[in-house]
Amino acid sequence: MNTGPDIVAGGYVVMGLVSLAVAVFLVFLVRGRPHRVTPACPRCRYCLTGTTSTTCPECGHDLTTSGVYLNGRRRWPRLIRAVIVIVIAILSFLPYRYVTQSSWRYWAMDTFGGPQSWTGGATGIVKLDPQQCQAVEVTIIYPDPEHADLRSATSNGDIYYWNPPEPVRLMMAQADGSRREYVIEPNSNDPQRWTIQRVQPMFGPSDQALSTDPVIAERLEDFYRVISERIDRDGTTPPGDDPGPRVAAAMAEMMIRVMLAETSAYPTYPFNDSDMSAVIHSDVNFTAKKGATIPHVQGNWFMLASWFLFWLIVLLIVIAPGSPTDPWEPEPADPGANSKT
Ligand SMILES: [Zn+2]
């Protein structure tokens, strides 16, 4: 038996009835109720009909300064009205969030742009010992922002999925401030086959004389050796002397494996090689985003702001001072007194 939709619909009906009752009650808070007797003393509510004095005959209240109850309506004290509105506002927050948060999220995405994070994206960073390595920091990014095929990303509602394998960018920051960057691209027909070539740095000055010098790893098993040899070729030390390229190759291989397995952050420490471990100056910081949808501006802020603004306006209306009293104009002491002379 499927009662789910009925329960949800019933919930909305109850919510609608409660909202209607609250709205009626708020109108009552603003309007107040008419005075039972008029004109009346505002302190003791004694009926002043026929009174000619400027003070209340019942309690002695000075009616010229306070005025009397006549046309105005009697409302609850202002502090009580304010507290009631604040309590209703707080109670309304969760239902309001439940009903509106998805529409605010879509509105924020439509207005300010869609998801920034692409599922499957990942970054790995490690710092190296500048005494032993030419590179002081190695960064590996999946997918490479310049070479990833945007057209291959499929859109599912608001979430874009990369279709691995995508190109990966390897960035090596050198101790002298220069950068060496490589793009590692999969072969479209054979996911085991990878092309590694040097590219112009994404940020910073480009090197006109840069030789891309691509090499191919035929199998993932060759990947580490091929890429470390390729990077070594761009260094100034004899091949194998600098452990940096091997760390970079290991980072790249780890990234490729994370991508192909479509897993999230890699759980194991990848460097068993003591030569490599000795030069690593930081934890291998490997973060992967999968399935996260982060709009440029969070819809929750608009949900919160609209709720706050609405109740602020309601509060101001409810506590706005009315004119509960009218000036006291006593009846003439003797209506016939003037005509007698
Ligand atoms: Zn009185």
Explained architecture:
- The chain contains seven helices and eleven strands.
- The protein has 341 residues and is of the alpha+beta class.
- The protein has two domains: 25-114 and 299-319, no CATH class; 122-288, no CATH class.
- The protein has a seven-stranded antiparallel sheet.
- A hairpin with a 4-residue loop joins strand 7 and strand 8 (179-186).
- It is rod-shaped and about 120 Å long.
- The termini are far apart.
- The structure holds zinc ion.
When the domains are counted, the total is 2
Largest β-sheet summary:
7 strands, antiparallel
CA distance, first residue to last residue = 94 Å
Percent of residues in β-strands: 15-25%
- Spell out the helices and strands N to C: HEHEHEEEEEEEEHHHEH
Helix content: 25-40%
Structural class designation: alpha+beta
Bound ligand species: zinc ion
Large-scale geometry: rod-shaped
Please compute the radius of gyration using only Cα atoms: 38 Å
Strands side by side in the biggest sheet: 10-9-8-7-4-3-11
Low-confidence stretches: 337-341
Number of helices: 7
Extended strand count: 11
Overall mean pLDDT stands at 81
